[in-house]
Write a structure and sequence with these properties.
- It is built from 13 helices and 12 strands.
- By secondary structure, the chain is of the alpha/beta class.
- The longest helix is centred in the middle third of the chain and has 21 residues.
- The protein starts with 7 loop residues before the first strand and ends with a helix.
């Protein structure tokens, strides 16, 4: 049995396989509203056979956006566009997920594909909005970022309630899975990390205090969701910086998340800085983040998702067979090959007559593929895809 194509259930949602399209910021929304680009973007991944397709980090408030191009669900009018995306994803047999987020001290920046820098006077003249971000403390993320305003206790309550309201709108839009973004230096992760949180009240200092607000948000969102709706959390398992958040902290935190009803921890890393620092301990390579998913899965006894340069079907399958994670999250490889899941099924010999492909495609491929096979040729193009991606 190929584990990559085994079904798996979380609460009332069953995924047809273990392949997940990670949330990837496209920064292409219009005033928080999704556009036709998003329908095409997400629809192709669902047609490509992934079991779960994530809509990118979606802001819980206008001033929680990372950029002016972030989608949002901070008002009811934004539900309909998301509902259309959900319909497209589900129409192709995938399940639909959404990651909800507050940018915190990394907010009010230019779109990544335009430089990911502070907005210039010219940007503002062209209609881009700028604002002062908020965070746990008045410490800028890095050079070129604004100094955030520390959130008051009333401000914390407002952010928590915004997450709850956004999660409820996501359910109304039809999403099967909700994920809280607690990684990459955004608001909730910045409360966790001693690189960003210098508070002296009950939300700063000790590990227990730094976990307090993210856990309050988790508890409130879990209570607002239907019992059958899974709740995932993406974390940065380590900051990759001495004196920052470490894997041991993530294990403690993941145990707390499980107690609150979280169903899976999506294990990324990094994305957080302090002035003058670099991710000095970071060494990228195929599967470089998988060990964190493995440790959390076993030591916190919670399902995990592995992410990070997982390119080939054989490698993805081995991660699952070795019990290192429960789901495989893929990002850039999916951009390169949106049909990665179907190519993986072909690689493992699971599509003898292309039955896993959309029927509109299958008959074309079967005719073409039969001729190739008759000549002893292979349809497995994954090695070519892998080499090109590297």
């Amino acid at each position: 049995m190929v584990k990559l194509f085994e079904s798996i259930a979380f609460r009332g949602v069953e995924l047809g396989n273990r392949i997940v399209v990670s949330p990837m910021g496209m920064y292409s929304a219009d005033n928080g509203y999704v556009t036709p680009f998003h329908l095409v973007h997400y629809g192709k991944f669902a047609m490509g056979g992934a079991g779960l397709v994530f809509v990118e980090q979606t802001s819980v408030s206008r001033k929680g956006r990372i950029t002016n191009g972030d989608p949002g669900l901070w008002e009811d009018g934004q539900i309909d566009g998301m509902r259309q995306i959900v319909h497209v994803i589900k129409s192709q047999g995938s399940k639909a997920a959404i990651q909800i987020n507050h940018g915190g001290r990394k907010s009010s920046q230019q779109r990544a594909f335009r430089g990911n820098s502070h907005l210039t006077d010219r940007d503002i003249e062209m209609g881009e909005e700028t604002w002062v971000p908020t965070g746990p403390s008045d410490v800028a993320f890095s050079d070129g970022f604004q100094t955030p305003i520390p959130l008051s206790k009333d401000g914390l309550t407002g952010v928590r309630d915004a997450f709850v309201a956004t999660a409820r709108r996501a359910v109304l839009a039809g999403f099967d899975v909700i994920e809280l973004h607690m990684a990459h230096g955004y608001l909730l992760q910045s409360f966790l990390s001693p690189l960003a949180n210098f508070r002296t009240d009950e939300y700063g200092g000790s590990l227990e205090n730094r976990m307090r607000f993210p856990l309050e948000v988790t508890r409130a969102v879990r209570a607002a969701l239907p019992s059958a709706t899974p709740l995932f959390v993406r974390i940065s398992a380590t900051d990759w910086i001495d004196g920052g958040w470490e894997i041991e902290d993530s294990i403690v935190f993941s145990r707390k998340l499980k107690e609150l009803g979280v169903d899976l921890v999506d294990c990324s890393t990094g994305g957080n800085l302090r002035a003058g620092s670099t991710n000095a301990n970071l060494g990228r390579g195929p599967g470089y983040q998988v060990p964190f998913a493995e440790r959390i899965r076993h030591e916190a006894a919670i399902a995990t998702g592995a992410v990070g340069m997982i390119r080939t079907p054989d490698f993805a399958e081995k991660i699952l067979q070795d019990g290192r994670a429960d789901l495989i999250f893929m990002a850039r490889q999916m951009l390169f090959d949106p049909f990665w899941a179907l190519h993986a099924a072909e690689h493992f010999g699971l599509t003898g007559n292309f039955e896993k492909w959309p029927e509109q495609y299958a008959w074309w491929l079967a005719k073409w593929g039969g001729a190739l096979r008759a000549n002893g040729e292979s349809l497995d193009g994954l090695e070519r895809y892998r080499e090109a991606a590297e």
